[in-house]
Amino acid sequence: MRFALLRHAGLVPAPTVDLDHRRMSLRNGGSRNKPGMTGVVLAMLLPTPAVTQPVTPPAHYANVQLADPAKEASARALMETLRCLVCQGQSIADSDADMAADMRALVRERIERGEKPASIRDWLIARYGDYVTYDPPLSGLTWPLWLAPILLLGVGGWIARSSFRRRTR
Amino acid sequence: MIAEAGLAALWFAGALAALQLVMAAIGIARDRDDVAAAVRPVAIVQGLLALLAMALLIELFLDSDMSVKLVVENSHSAKPWLYKFAGAWGNHEGSMLLWVTILGLAGGAVAIFERSLPERTLTATLGAQATIALGFYAFLLFSSNPFARLNPSAPDGLGLNPLLQDPGLAFHPPTLYTGYVGLSVAFSFAVGALVTRDVGPAFAKAMRPWVLIAWIFLTLGITAGSYWAYYELGWGGWWFWDPVENASLMPWLAATALLHSVTVLATRDGLRAWTIMLAVVAFSMSMIGTFLVRSGILTSVHAFAVDPERGAFILALLAIYIGGALALFAARIGTVRAGTTFDPVSREGGLVANNLLLSVILGIVLIGTLYPIVAASFDVQLSVGPPFFNKAAGPIALLLVAVMAVGPLLRWRRDDAKAVLRRVILPIGATLAAAIALLFVWPGVLPWAGLSLAAGLAVASVAPLRKRNLRRTPLFTYGMVIAHLGIAVSLAGMASDRAFTQETLVAVRTGEPARVGPYTVTLDGISPVIGQNWSALEARLTATRGASERILRPQLRFFANPPTSTNESAILTVLDGQLYTVLGQPDGQGRWQLRLWWKPFVTLIWFGGVLVALGGMLSLLGRVRRERRTTMRNQWA
Question: What value of ipTM does the predicted structure carry?
Answer without folding.
Answer: 0.81
